[in-house]
Design a protein that fits this description.
heterotrimer, A: mainly alpha, B: alpha/beta, 4-stranded antiparallel sheet, 6 helices
Chain lengths: 262, 214, 233
């Protein structure tokens, strides 16, 4: 058992192995994710009943909630990958940690935008200092910090380590930040209508939501794999296998795939 | 007996360039070891790896037969490292600097050490008003204050005048003769034969040449 | 000169020596200590100019204004926490002492708080006076600063450690640690607000105390890891 785990660890640590195997995982995530999204979106937009209070505007939850959830779990995944990299000196973990950051930040921006769009008809204004939106904004700030720190350090190895430490510290603090923002919100504002009221949500609204959430996670996996493969190619650009890979693929496509490695 | 400091298959890559690779050596009691090589060959980097300030290397380090990770504190207890910036605070006097850098030294001992590096009479002056060479000597005074077994010195002769160089050289030789270990980088030729670890060949294939001290 | 066995140094002796050294250094560079305080004073005096000199309104926003000012002043002072030690090699030296680095970092952070956070807490009541803070607000203001500024120093040490070797570290650091300051800001400002409205504020202060204990446990470790990375650069 232990030996198998160790073997797995060593293989995971090998960029080439990841590069070869991940191309086989991608389509699965892509198709399952797309199917889930198609079902969730069609059901959610066309068949689920309108909310008795918010009317049709509630339907934005089918994008808002998955992106909000994903941006939070992406931050934690980024920190865990960073921790694995720091403790076990696994370079691939750092690569994953690095590529997640901009994706998570994009999700946070999406959650904030959809929240604002929903806020206009519901609250009559684009922005309200609602607890969830504020927490999401702080999360976006945390992402900014990690990305900015990574960009500021030229040495890739050091940048990985420093950004990982920041991500870990941020993750430890996220529950405290969330708690304090919620506490602050109840102090200053009467309870407002929030976007997600779990207890009252009817199953025909809820099931499509679960579909889109799972769909988002699958798509996220596709995205992470693609970015990781890109990053691996760049980092290993001087190795034989990458040179061989690139030359093979140059022949296959008429126009040279000369997109920047990053 | 196990050698004091041992490196096995040490490799270091910096900014996409292999500084050294498969470097193995074992040094110990009574050795003076000179890391040789042209500028940019990775001499300082090697010293920083040896003392544990840099962790971006491959291979293994041992202290008295124990893996460095396990023997770290024991090693640090026996280590004196002088890097490019040797930790002399400009806003402290020479005496205050030494009192912090070598906390177990008494006042008299500090004065004696300052005497040994030719800074007697400067103990009350903030090091910011000393010259570069004097600044360097404040750092070197640590060699005379309860010196530990292992000295790792990065370009110790920089900015030191001729007389000072001679005295410093003698100090290094004495330390080795009394059973200490000195690892240093320098372009200065020492008066005694030394072990050399050469990082310098242009093809970046370090070889180990044995000097040897009788 | 002979190689005699070195007398063993205890951790507390080293911490004491470092404490003495840092206090001495802070005293030698008094001007640097005054800068954050003057900044604190100036930033808070901008609000009456920018918003309104009306004492009632100012009294209402005073808790937040003073706390935001204190937070920014701390950011300003944090830039100096490890900088000179990094530049002259003292930080390397500390990493190579046969003592756990995190205790040395803790000592440095403590001195930093003594010479930056504590003075902020001491002059804050004066700013409260200028901003028309209601009478009940002074006690929670002082205590919240006393409990909150060490947290700012501790969390700040991580940011300072991560950015110490960078050319533009001073600009980057606020980005890294401001989000982490939010819980302190919320509870501290709320304590002062409650106090000035004659309401109980012990709960908020208790949170600050707990958060202080928490950061005391994790920050020195994270900061020394950060410094190890910065020094390896």
């Amino acid at each position: 058992m232990w030996e198998a785990l160790k073997r797995f660890y060593h293989r995971m640590g090998s960029p080439k192995w990841f590069f070869d195997i991940s191309i086989k995982w991608s389509p699965w995530f892509l198709w399952i994710g797309s199917a889930l999204m198609a079902v969730g979106v069609a059901w959610g937009l066309a068949f689920a009943p309108a909310d008795y209070l918010q009317g049709n505007s509630f339907r934005i939850i089918y994008i808002h909630v998955p992106s909000a959830l994903l941006s939070q779990s992406a931050y934690i995944m980024m920190a865990i990958a960073g921790l694995v990299g720091l403790v076990w000196k696994m370079k691939m973990a750092f690569v994953v940690s690095k590529v997640i950051a901009p994706i998570g930040a994009t999700m946070a921006v999406m959650a904030l935008l959809t929240g604002a769009i929903w806020g206009k008809p519901t609250w009559g204004t684009w922005w309200v200092w609602d607890a969830r939106l504020t927490s999401m904004l702080v999360l976006l700030f945390l992402y900014f910090g990690v990305i900015a720190l990574h960009n500021a350090i030229e040495n890739e190895d050091m940048a990985n380590k420093a950004a990982s430490i920041l991500a870990i510290v941020g993750t430890i603090n996220i529950p405290i930040i969330k708690y304090s923002v919620e506490w602050w919100n109840t102090l200053h504002q009467p309870a407002t209508i929030t976007l997600t009221k779990k207890p009252t949500m009817a199953p025909e609204m809820f099931i499509p939501l679960v579909c889109t959430i799972l769909g988002f996670y699958c798509w996220f996996a596709v995205w992470v794999i693609a970015r990781t493969r890109n990053e691996v190619l760049w980092r290993e650009r001087r190795t034989k296998w990458v040179k061989r890979y690139v030359s093979e693929h140059m022949q296959m496509t008429p126009s040279p795939a000369s997109k920047g490695g990053r | 007996m196990a050698p004091w400091l041992e490196a096995k298959m040490l490799g270091c890559e910096r900014d996409d360039r292999q500084l050294f690779d498969q470097l193995s050596f074992a040094v110990g009691e009574g050795d003076i070891v000179r890391i040789a090589g042209p500028n940019g060959a990775g001499k300082s980097t090697l010293l920083r790896i040896l003392v544990g300030l840099s962790s971006s290397y491959s291979g293994d380090l041992y202290w008295q037969g124990q893996p460095m990770g396990r023997a770290r504190y024991d090693f640090l207890d026996n280590l004196l490292y002088l890097g490019h910036s040797p930790g002399v605070k400009a806003n402290l006097t020479a005496e205050e600097n030494l009192a912090w850098n070598c906390q177990q030294a008494s006042r008299t001992e500090i004065f004696e050490a300052l005497e040994s590096v030719g800074l007697r009479g400067y103990e009350d002056i903030q090091t910011s008003s000393l010259s570069a060479g004097q600044h360097r000597r404040v750092a070197l005074a640590r060699l005379y204050l309860h010196p530990p077994k292992v000295w790792i010195l990065d370009e110790p002769f920089t900015a030191i005048d001729k007389a000072g160089v001679g005295r410093l050289e003698q100090t290094v030789i004495n330390h080795a003769q009394q059973g200490g270990l000195v690892v240093l980088t320098t372009h200065h030729d020492l008066a005694v034969p030394v072990k050399t670890i050469d990082l310098g060949s242009s093809d970046f294939k370090p070889t180990e040449r044995e000097g040897g001290i009788e | 000169m002979s190689i005699s066995p070195k007398p063993q140094l205890s951790l507390t002796a080293t911490m004491k020596a470092l404490f003495k050294r840092d206090i001495l250094l802070a005293f030698r560079a008094r001007g640097d200590l005054l800068n954050p305080l003057m900044f604190f004073l100036m930033v808070t005096s901008l609000f009456p100019l920018a918003v309104t000199p009306d004492p009632v309104f100012l009294g209402k926003i005073a808790p937040g204004v003073i706390w935001v000012g204190a937070l920014l002043a701390t950011l300003l002072s944090l830039d100096l926490l490890f900088k000179s030690d990094y530049e002259d090699g003292s930080l390397e030296r500390m990493l190579l002492m046969p003592q756990p680095t995190l205790f040395l970092i803790l000592t440095k952070v403590f001195v930093h708080w003594l010479v930056s956070g504590l003075p902020l807490a001491l002059i804050a009541p004066l700013l409260g006076l200028m901003l028309g803070l209601p009478d009940g607000g002074y006690l929670p203001l002082f205590i919240s600063l006393l409990l909150g500024t060490p947290v700012l120093s501790l969390l700040g040490a991580i940011g300072a450690g991560l950015t110490v070797g960078l050319r533009k570290g001073g600009m980057l650091m606020p980005l890294l640690i401001l989000p982490l300051y939010i819980p302190v800001l919320i509870f501290a400002a709320s304590a002062v607000q409650s106090g000035s409205q004659g309401q109980p504020f012990v709960g908020q202060l208790a949170f600050l105390g707990a958060y202080l204990a928490f950061t005391l446990a994790i920050c020195p470790l994270a900061a020394s890891a950060a410094i190890r990375i910065s020094v390896a650069r």
